[in-house]
Amino acid sequence: MVEVSETKQKIKFYQTGTLTAGNRLLDEGHRSVQATIDRSNSLDSGHRACQGCGEALGARYAIDAAMRATNNQLIAANATGCLEVFTTPYPETAWSIPWIHSLFGNAAAVAGGIAAAMKAKGREDVRVIAQGGDGGTTDIGFGCMSGMFDRNDDVLYICYNNQAYMNTGVQRSSATPGAARTATTMPVGEEPGNEFGTGKNMPLIAMAHQIPYVATASVHDLHDLEHKVTKAMSFHGSRYIEIYVPCPLGWGSKPGQTITIARLAVETGMFPLFEAENGNLVGVTKIRHQQPVEEYLKLQRRFAHVFKKGNESQLEALQVIADNNIERFDLMSRGKR
Amino acid sequence: MLEQIEGSHAVAKAIALSRPEVISAYPITPQTHIVEDLGTMVKAGEIENCQFMLVESEFGALSACIGSSAAGARSYTATSSQGMLFMMEAVYNASGMGLPIVMTVGNRAIGAPINIWNDWSDSMSARDSGWLQLFAENNQESVDVHIQAFRLAEELSMPVMVCMDGFILTHAYAQVDIPDQAQVDEFLPPFQPRQVLDPAAPLSMGAMVGPEAFTEVRYLAHHKQVEALEIIPKQATEFEAIFGRDSGGLIKSFEADGAETVVVTMGSVIGTMKEVLAGMREDGISIGALTIRSFRPFPREALREALKDAKRVIVFEKSVAVGMGGIVAMNLRTALQDFPILVHSVIGGLGGRPITRDNLRRMFEKGIRDQLDEPHFHDIHMDVVNREIEREKAECRSGAVAENILNDVGVVAAAKAI
Amino acid sequence: MFQVRIHGRGGQGVVSAAEMLSVAAFEEGKHSQAVPSFGSERMGAPVVAYVRIDNKEIELREPVLEPDLLIVQDPTLFSAIDVFAGLREDGYLLVNTSKSMEDLGIAETADKLPAGHVAAISATELAIRHLRRPTPNTVLLGAFTAMSDIVKIESLFKAIERKFPGKVGELNIAAAQAAYSAAKSG
């Protein structure tokens, strides 16, 4: 039996194996946006994402949830990256919403400009989303995003975090975890893979800007993702949601295991799910059964070297990161947060 | 209404009169007074339906305008020098997407070495981007050309930069006729975007274009500038009809008609040149001048027509393509390549070097005798240059060039003189 | 054309002085151009500003090389730069100082100028008395309007009012008036 978090609904289901609550078992009002006939299909079929792409899944759910929450009055600004490239392969577009791609590093500023235009025109019913991958967000887009947060522009920024520059061939970004193999952090030398002790935690940085709402989500729990996007759209001002999106190509994982890996990231503590408002933590998703990091790592070839003899310290270091997250966000205790 | 007003303040008023909807602002000398004024006006409620964004960088400033313009709002920003370079990716993006943003460039030198004074290197760095580039001669023209720029940009659906010499115009107090709102409204209709982000009619902007179509898209951008060659004079005529002033247009003649030697330049330096040239004419020399007001599109036909009977041209510009020579000179030489005409290239005023009647006269005297080297660096102190060249020959660790020269001509030299 | 060069240091209101002088000329229906020449905004750095006044449009953009009027707001500049460069033989010289021209070491230059064209004014002190701030610019301009008819004191008052509305303007006008009266009485 599974008890779904108190903040959403008090329903109990019989689960077998997958822990996923199917839409058809829910009340209409509680079903995922994707389950309704009049879903917007903002990201329509025909896009060129890889099989098993976590980003395509996350984007579709996130944007449709936002469309529903805004009565379809939505404009999106997209950074250069996988999402932009696989959704607009010349001469087609998979977007059925007003959508602009400007540059790699400026999605947040472009979105801020769109929001300002809507305000100038007295059309604040039209809401704005900026979206990009981790590269476009935590690295090259950092300045513009920090500026957007500073101004508290009325924009929801969604970061699809697949932990590297995937579109250009899997290079390390400041969201790449320690030990991970990328084209610029190869598993060679004394410290194979990405260096430990580097990197940025973008959700925490967003919280430090004390913007109205910050949340993390993962594509294994799409109800939670939709709920957070919907909630975000109820705020005005700057909001940030980071969605954990496995990339089979970049991570060396099986396309059919995207959901499993996304769940394990959360259940090991590697990717905590939480919400914050104005810089203060207001909610976390507790871990039901903590999984050891090996369960998560062994499904991804980008961590294969971690299991080789001599690299035990890397495995330990990753477990420490997971344990630290669990402690920091209090992901295990049973009491109310 | 006539006002004695600082150039920047006058420009801010012109922008305000143009009914902007989104203004983004990042400070950089010498455009700061423009955005400061606009910010105060918006905050005080003096500009209706306008949002003022304080951004984190010039890249953010132009990017915000890209978003707002794409969403159908009349958008404006200003920059200079380093700021232009910092936003360069966005500069090409704006013109590539055909967004009618208007931007003031308070012309300032680009470093290193860091220099806050006037020259045209910032505008020149964007000359291939597809933006239209209009140069103002004085504070009145700065006001008038900004108003025309919005209409030009929106008619073409292309961004326009209005270039005014930093400090010389931005910080100069002069008499300017500030138009009234009714006049501006008559000239400048509300913005009707060619493409717009609108939930009622969704579209995707900024998609990738492959080899199959990129050439055509680029050609169309070029074509728009060719169209602008017709539109710019037409709008200048309409402007004159409403405001009573000849401002804007492609080129302007200062007794160039029938002159044997024609000086070609841009921006404010013509003000100082006029007196010199008048004096030379009084001494019997056949000499006049032309200013290029629209540098992009380059007014090839207008210049050919104006210079068809001239024997020689002296191009005077505050820009240089390092390793090659004068930029305006190269553009002009290309336009006149089949003419039996000598084009001298003079590069002056770099980094704010004062241009005086005296040093202009001396240079023109050489010019009319075809005695100028190629390119000719106006008012250069070759002794300083040669000393540095000797230093570099003498030892490997000769030191940083700029610092060496400063030591040579600056503080150390002054102290020694005392 | 009447050309003015104002020397001072950052923070002493050199640029404002140029602005006000040009506005005063404008108030009399004249054409006027005022241009600052300075480096990065910094208190204490040498600042120069130029003003040109004429009955027709002024298009000249070069620095003022042969001033008809030289205003020196800070005498410590004498040792730093060639303040007097190009000063015309029939030009005016105003120096903000409580010392004599001899004590400043510039008597030779000052004596070459026509009578009534030179004034040493304790502008900083007068400013402190009227404004409670050591900004000598309006005082010096007030004194100048007594020495020449290029610009009338009433026009200067209008320029001051435009620049400094309210109490600050009133105090500056009083300071300028005081300087004017002192200069008139010799």
Would you give an account of this structure?
- The complex is a heterotrimer of chains A (337), B (418) and C (186).
- Chain A has 337 residues and is of the alpha/beta class.
- Chain A has eleven helices and ten strands.
- An eight-stranded mixed sheet of chain A has the order 4-3-5-6-8-7-9-10, sandwiched between helices.
- In chain A, helix 1 (54-69) packs across helix 7.
- Chain A is globular, with a radius of gyration of 19 Å.
- Chain B has three domains: 2-243, Thiamin diphosphate (ThDP)-binding fold, Pyr/PP domains (Rossmann fold, 3-Layer(aba) Sandwich); 251-377, Rossmann fold (3-Layer(aba) Sandwich); 392-417, no CATH class.
- Chain B has helices at 7-17, 32-43, 58-70, 81-86, 88-97, 121-125, 139-156, 181-187, 214-243, 270-282, 300-307, 327-335, 357-368, 382-394, 401-409, 411-417; strands at 2-6, 22-25, 51-54, 75-79, 102-107, 132-135, 160-165, 173-177, 204-205, 251-254, 261-265, 287-292, 294-296, 312-317, 342-347, 376-377.
- The longest helix of chain B is centred in the middle third of the chain and has 30 residues, at 214-243.
- The model of chain B has no long low-confidence stretch (mean pLDDT 96).
- With 186 residues, chain C is of the alpha/beta class.
- Chain C has a single domain (2-184), classed as Pyruvate-ferredoxin oxidoreductase, PFOR, domain III (Pyruvate-ferredoxin Oxidoreductase, domain 3, 3-Layer(aba) Sandwich), CATH 3.40.920.
- Helices cover 39% and strands 20% of the residues of chain C.
- Chain C has helices spanning 14-27, 101-104, 107-112, 123-131, 137-147, 153-163, 167-184, and strands at residues 2-9, 31-37, 46-54, 69-72, 92-96, 118-121.
- In chain C, strands 2-3-1-4-5-6 form a six-stranded mixed sheet, with helices on one face.
- In chain C, helix 4 packs antiparallel against helix 7 (167-184).
- Chain C is globular.
- The model of chain C has no long low-confidence stretch (mean pLDDT 93).
- Chains in contact: A-B, B-C.
- Chain A binds chain B through residues 72-75, 77-78, 85, 88-91, 93, 95-103, 105-106, 109-122, 126, 143-144, 146-147, 150-151, 153, and chain B through 21-22, 24, 49-51, 53-57, 59-61, 63-73, 75, 89-90, 93, 97, 197-199, 201-210, 212-213.
